[in-house]
Amino acid sequence: MLDLVGKRYYWFLLSLIVIIPGLVSLAVHGLRLSIDFTGGTLWEIQLSRPVQPGDVRQVLAQNGIDDAIVQTADNNVVLIRMRELKEGSPEKEKLTQALRASFGDITELRLESVGPTLGTAIRNRAITAVALTTVGILLYIAWAFRNTNNPFLYGIAAIIAMLHDVAVVLGVFSILGWLRGVEVDALFVTALLTVIGFSVHDTIVVFDRIRENLARRAAPTFEQIVNYSLVQTLVRSINTSLTVVLTLLALYLLGGETIRTFVLALLIGIVSGTYSSIFNASQIVVVWENRELHRLFARLRRQHAPA
Predict the structure, then answer these.
(1) Which of 45, 51, 277, 307 sits most deeply, having the most CB atoms within 10 A of its CB?
(2) Do 71 and 258 touch, CB atoms closer than 8 A?
(3) Which residues form the Protein export membrane protein SecD/SecF C-terminal domain (predicted)?
(4) Fold of 5-34+118-298
């Protein structure tokens, strides 16, 4: 039988290796926020020929838009993020004429404007939603596992695994924002909440199998019971996640530009959620039940105690 629990510190180390670079990037660079959070205008246009983002920025700068963010996509599509630009305003007409003079025919695909007040409201509601979700998960799991010795331990372990997945997604997008200019928008928050739900669902499936095997004493020790439960659920968890990942991969490769960030966040989160449910959440329960942290702290106290 696979000894997944016996290698638990290797799994923890792998998680740290993945998370730490993202946390450093978050601390230094943060997330690159879209106009959904900062306020401004997203202008999506299609040109008659391929162009470089720098050429578009130069035309915008010549017409008074100095801080625009320009990205190119397939089919000569250009995404321009800038300060608020109203539909039908003289400034918009001036920019349209300048772009047409430089690059030929222009087809407007989208023009969305968000004020800074609305952007702040979206950000605050997103933080509130994640906080309420976390509290709800803790209470639900504590109630569902109320017949175990330490029901809140299962809830805390599930939340740690969930925060692991959120940290992975946030860290990756912070790095992508720093290196590639990828922005997070309101759909990104939806993706995060979806990842949280998937992570907790997968963790509960594993915990439920542990509870069943504890009730019938499927192995002599708690550590062996957890390992036996993980082996039982391993194939099912991987197969379930793989079907979702393949679907999302097809959406990412073949879907439109507007949902690509959303799909990428789901892809990263679901892969991370599958990993954390098997290799983090259950292992945390084992570490606590074996009092390994207590012994570690006791050893450290003895080493630093005066002679």
Answers:
(1) 277
(2) no
(3) 96-290
(4) Multidrug efflux transporter AcrB transmembrane fold (1.20.1640)
